[in-house]
Every structure is written in structure tokens, then in C-alpha cells.
Amino acid sequence: QVQLKESGGGLVQAGGSLRLSCEASTRTPNTYVIGWFRQAPGKEREFVSAIKSISDDTKYADSVKGRFTISRDNARTTLYLQMNSLEPEDTAVYFCALKRGVVLSTQTGAYESWGQGTQVTVSS
What is the rounded distance in angstroms from the CA atom of residue 19 to the CA atom of residue 36? Predict the structure, then answer.
């Protein structure tokens, strides 16, 4: 498994922005997909966005399209999530996750490595 660590969470007012980062501290596979999931209190973990390591192909949940942007820095094996126009409904713990291969899966079970998560709280 790849060790992942998220950072950048915090408290922000509705309409504000945050940028999350995820750094891999161990070697990554040759080809992989890395992405973000989130889990709000009392709810299941849900897909937010993912990106391939070998291209700029991305996928977003409908709820964040147009507001969130995923990007990566392969040289440093760092993943980012720029979150704009935040809403109280975006409040959750955000997890970074990685899977081998090239399929942009939205399923939590497809991902093999997970970070510990970072809390994002959006106040109204």
C-alpha cells in the first residue's frame, strides 16, 4: 500500500475556498488513479473526484462539478483539490485514495490505499 497524507482542511464560510493537498510518502505504482472522497457525519463515504497518473483525464461527482478542481504534481507525487464556492453541504472529512490501473472508479472498494482524512467545515 501507498502511504498518503492529507492537509489543508479547516473552517471556512460559505462561498469561500480551500485547497487540499495529499502527498504520497512511499513509492507509487507505475500507473494509478488518485482521488478524493468525503464522508459527512452519519453518511457513507462518497466519491468527489479522481485523476489518472498518466494523463489529464479526470472525473467529478455531479455535486462538485464547476466548483472543485483536481490536479496533481507527479514530480512530487502530490495531489490537490481546489474547492471554490464552498457550501455547508460540503462539510465532511476528505480522504485521499489511490488505486492501481487506469480506470477512474467512483467506488470506495476499488481503492487500495487511503489517507487518514482532513476535516473541512463550511459555516453558513
Answer: 12
Find the Cα–Cα–Cα–Cα dihedral 106, 111, 116, 120, rounded to 10°: -10
| Cα 122 to Cα 58: distance, rounded to the nearest angstrom | 25
Cross-strand partners of 78: 23, 73
25-39, 81-95, 108-122: range with lowest mean pLDDT: 25-39
Say how far apart CA 20 and CA 12 lie, in whole Å.
Answer: 13
Pull the grid cell for residue 58: 479526470
| Phi, psi (rounded to 5 degrees) for 109 | -65, -15
pLDDT in tens, 84-116: 999 999 999 999 999 999 999 999 999 999 999
